[in-house]
Amino acid sequence: MSKPDWKNFEPVLIPDIPDLDQIKNYEKNGGYSALKSVFTDNDKWPDSKSVINEVKEANIRGRGGAGFNAGLKWSFMPPADGGPRYLACNGDESEPGTFKDRKIFEYNPHIFIEGALIAAYAMEITTIYVYIRGEYKSYIDMMEEAIQDAYDAGYIGKDILGSGRDIEFYVHSGAGAYICGEETSMLESLEGKRGYPRVKPPFPAQKGLWGRPTTINNIETLAHVPAVINRGAEWFKGVGAKNHPGPVLYGISGHVNRPGVYELPSGVPVLDLIHDVAQGIKGGKELKAVIPGGSSTPVLRADQLDGITMDSDSLRTVGTMMGTAGMVVMDEDTDMVDVLWRIAHFYHHESCGQCTPCREGTGWLEKILLKIKNGEGEVKDLDLLLDLTTQMEGRTICALADAAAWPVRHTINRFRDEFEARCKKSVHALA
Amino acid sequence: MAYEFTKEDLKEIEKLKTKYPEVTPVTLPALWIAQNRFGHVNPEVQKLVAKTLDLPEAHVHGVATFYTQYYKEEKGKHVLDVCTCLSCQLCGGYDILNYLEDKLGIKKGETTDDGMFTLNEVECLGACGYAPMLQVTNDKYVNHLTEEKVDNLIESLKNGEQPEYEKIGMPRRNNIK
Ligand SMILES: Cc1cc2nc3c(=O)[nH]c(=O)nc-3n(C[C@H](O)[C@H](O)[C@H](O)COP(=O)(O)O)c2cc1C
Ligand code: SF4
Ligand code: FES
User: Fold this and answer.
1) Which regions form coiled coils (chain B) (predicted)?
2) Which terminus of chain A, N or C, has fewer Cβ atoms within 10 Å?
3) What strand order describes the sheet that includes A168-173?
4) What is the dihedral of CA A229, A104, A169, A173, to 10 degrees?
């Protein structure tokens, strides 16, 4: 497959325009024209379905981690019955290695607001909540302000642009809980409860907030919508990788010279992102490993990266995933045992404790890895860890247990020598 | 000490009720208002929130204890939440935590005798590219930490100055080789 011409790509979500967070500047640069088109141009957009179809055709794959086609998700909403319907925008952003949605809150909040309003129009939604992790206090304040400006400009509220549509838009602050990024946990938290994920079915489209139809989308996912409306699905599909198209906010952290969030097409070679975009490994060291899309996505060894690009098809060939496109880069001196123990600690700390395999499993993973880290593990502990991961996967209410299991299985398998070297020689003499 | 909301707090809580179809969702924002007012949401404050919203105390207690940002007891005047999670671990988050433990003479989870500082180790704060970093009392992020930057931060907090919001410029394409 041809490599996208990423060096000449013009950013869409976070373009290099000063003070774009100010609504006047956003409007001056074409902002809210997609909203105007959708809400008022009845020839181009005869009904809500026509908007959903365009977005479905664009194949915006959810940027929150699961990569599900946004328009297809929208089409699951049941027909409107006159009662309330909700859009819950996921700005919980807590998966280690992920720090991209905050760039939208800070630099271009209105592109997200506009996208969310178009989504609400398409699904005949009456109220939008944007759930932002409580630690992002600065961004919560910025979003409150941006939403107020959009209210004042008549893009939110009653009878928006004379369309007869009423839509409310509120910020809801979290208070410190990774699990609230899981969509049904977020709904519980929005309802003012402890963030325990719900058993599915029923799915949120049927029974979401307060038992009403609800769609959940990531902030970046929604921020892609205005450009899809303005430039068309064909344009979006032409950016980056075929089956995972569009611009992507790549968050690059770890041992690189220039970490940060970069907007580039999907499908950029992993090695280009590390060596050209992030300008290589700090201190001129060698690359050892990369976690491509947040801590739950399986790690890759440097020798697996040749020709691998940041899109689901390519990453699947080496047994990993796009996740949140939060890449964590590790140099040759990185201790993989320490790294894996820290990841296991995170998931244990964040398990909500509802399901036994997750509550107990994440605890055991951490405990055994700590033992190995301290040089007290045995080789058979590695197999015990692998066995535990199989007992955790697919047996729980939400995907946190899987997210905890994957990195353990794959880090051990891909760096087995390093883990074995850290284990004690067997203490039992062979007969 | 008897905890009471001010008139402004109560007005804000009333306004919050209009955001949701029922009162339960106000639990989280009301706990925030309480914590901003009293510095914590100990069991007495939880009771006040329950009474104000006319919700069961057990519910408010359950919520307050589920979320890590609510302080269930009094903390130091400044709470330093040092991230040691994945990217911060790689970039020296533990060195910063250890440095602060030595400097303040306390272990993580503890508060200095003068009540000025509480030190915590926390999970990813969504600032991975700017590691190592910490958050001050649920508010500003202080990024790209060095020992010197930590020294300056402690000094200025002691002098009653709050850290500024650190705007991190977007890396631009024309900077890319
Ligand atoms: C444990 C867990 C944590 C999650 N955290 C987040 C998060 O912080 N932000 C997010 O957008 N999605 C998160 N997700 C994914 C959401 O459940 C959901 O799939 C997503 O918000 C849907 O939006 P999208 O389709 O636009 O990606 C998480 C999922 C799990 C299982
Ligand atoms: S899998 Fe873990 S985090 Fe998810 S609901 Fe079960 S116990 Fe809670
Ligand atoms: S790992 Fe420290 S902010 Fe993400």
Assistant:
1) none
2) C
3) A168-173, A127-132, A86-91, A214-218
4) 150
**Residue B171 pLDDT greater than 90, yes or no:** no
User: What is the model's pLDDT at position A332?
Assistant: 98
Contact with chain B for residue A193, Cβ under 8 A: yes
Test the B interface: residue of A263, A285, A342 with most B CBs within 10 Å: A342
**For A205-334, where are the E strands, in sequence order?**
214-218, 247-254, 260-265, 287-291, 300-301, 326-331
A3 pLDDT above the threshold of 90: no
Residue with tokens 């883990």: A419
Q: A19 touching B, CB under 8 A?
A: no
Q: How confident is the model over A82-120, as pLDDT tens digits?
A: 999 999 999 999 999 999 999 999 999 999 999 999 999
Domain membership flag for residue B73: no
Model confidence pTM above 0.95:
yes
How many structural domains comprise chain B? 2
A241 lines ligand 1 (CB under 6 A): no
- pLDDT value at residue A431: 46
pLDDT at residue B170, as a whole number: 73
pLDDT confidence tier of residue A4, bands split at 50, 70 and 90: confident
ipTM beyond 0.85? yes
* A31-237: CATH superfamily: NADH-ubiquinone oxidoreductase 51kDa subunit (3.40.50.11540)
Tell me whether residues A253 and B124 touch, CB distance under 8 A. Answer: no
Is the same domain home to B93 and B139? yes
- Bridge partners of B82, per DSSP, are B121, B134
The answer to whether A263 touches A244, Cβ cutoff 8 Å, is: no
Supply the pLDDT for residue B176. 47
Nearest Cα neighbor of A341 from A320, A362, A318, A322 is: A362
Measured between beta carbons, which residues in chain A are less than 8 angstroms from residue B176? 7, 276-277
The matching CATH number, chosen from 3.30.2310.20, 3.30.470.20, 1.20.1440.230, 2.60.120.10, for A336-422 is 1.20.1440.230
